[in-house]
Amino acid sequence: MPDIHQFNHHAMATYFEVRITGQEQTYAAQAAQAALDLLDRLESQLSRFRPNSAIAQLGGLAPGEKICLNEPAFACLEIAKKMELATRNAFSITAAALQTQSCLPQWSLLHGESSIRCESGRLEFDLGAIGKGFALDRMAALLRNWDCPAFLLVAGGSSILAGDAPEDAAGWSCGLGDDDATQRISLSHASLSGSGLAVKGSHILDPHTGQPALQQNRTWALADTAAESDALSTACMVLSEPEIKEVLTQDQSWLIFIESDGAAQPMGSRALPLQA
What we know:
- The chain contains 6 helices and 13 strands.
- It is an alpha+beta fold.
- The strands form 3 sheets. An 8-stranded antiparallel beta sheet has the order 1-2-6-7-10-11-12-13. Strands 3-5-4 form a 3-stranded antiparallel beta sheet, with helices on one face.
- Helix 3 (71-86) runs parallel beside helix 5 and helix 4 packs antiparallel against helix 5 (226-238).
């Protein structure tokens, strides 16, 4: 097994890991630092807890008003809107707004001017279920530009994005559950994200009701991008199994795992990347 260089960093209220192989230590460290610097910039632009971020400022918009967004914020909201539509609003970045408003706020993106317009309500956005994945996707693109295509990026253990596999390996070994989980897959050129009740309890809200999502105990989603897998794993906590099957018709590259009798059961037509 070739050397794997690992670098850790705290951001977005969790710990990120960058693992790089196929490069010598000094160069890998420089590439990882560039990726982590990008992560910090993205947090400053996307966090609702940063008063100067575009996302934090959206709450001040009245219906009919609009504001121009920086490129990362606009791109992240584009993906969020796509995933809201694909999951029939089981994933929503405005779910928490139902705790203070009677209806979900409505918003639209103006692509010609990279702006967002408030259509109704108050825009209380929380990118916690997609922001980490979005950051991993951007970090991955940067590492490829640094000629470091063989990498594994991890955000808090619940979001994983793999590039090229290590030399002589089918992929990066990832467990469905804890690090020592017996169910494992070989991950390359894909992302795996997990959501569940075990660590934070009933923290995921059903955007249709504003109440805690209790359809599933634990789910995992496999997709080509980390932003998509993050959103999917969250949505599947809200959806029943028949509804998940309907969502999977939106994209053949998606694969869902649902915890059943202590094991992760796959759903979807994508080939299962089981570890040999």
